[in-house]
Amino acid sequence: MVGNSASGKSTLAQLLSAKYRLPLWHIDRIFWKAGWQLCEAEEFASVHKRWIAETHWLIDGIGHWVQLCQRLAACDVIIFLNTPIECCFERAAQRMAADAIAPNKFMADGCRYSDVMDRQQQVILNFESEMRPRLAQLLQEELSEKPQVILDGRRTPKELLTDYAEWLTAEDK
Hints:
The protein contains seven helices and seven strands; from the N terminus they run βαβαββαβαβααβα. By secondary structure, the protein is α/β, with parallel strands linked by helices. The chain has a single domain (2-172), classed as Rossmann fold (3-Layer(aba) Sandwich). A three-stranded parallel beta sheet has the order 1-6-7, sandwiched between helices. Strand 3 and strand 4 form a beta hairpin. The chain starts with a strand and ends with a helix.
């Protein structure tokens, strides 16, 4: 599952994982170390390789481009949570307020969103200006034969779960 920061990926991934009984891994839990230090690239690649070697899995997040490409090539279905940037900014603000009370369960231990508000906004902008176009090109060109579902990230998690179930039903026909 891919999409911008604060697009709703982790929330939807948790629901999909429970519904379809899939092991769930969050890229942010291995991409970051305590204090917002980046994980060593070799360590990240090693853990990521183990994850995608499993028979069944659901992974949410972006991480490093090389592993993202490997993951998308290895998965059965690519889920792109297409959330408008304004919605991502709003959710990021909500996330930061909630994180000031309790740590985000989808983030690596020792990383608090309330410590990096400016960085969070830059990550959202960077996805829109750099990652989204690269990802769109990858999906349209190299991975065009791979099943892809693009979900409207403005919808609630329960609505998105229904949208995905409807997409699966349509795919089976």
